[in-house]
Amino acid sequence: MLNQNRKEILQNAAANHRDSLRRSLQQRIEAARAAGNDDLVRQLEAEASYLRMS
How many domains does the chain have? Predict the structure, then answer.
């Protein structure tokens, strides 16, 4: 029981962390697009692809 609770807590923490990374990366991509920085957009999209977030 205790191990199951710990496992669920760790899974939730990992999911929350990944969601936070995804939101941050998306905001950075939008800011780069708004600034017209195509090189940075491509770099951030590559990062998203590497992290399997896109």
Answer: 1
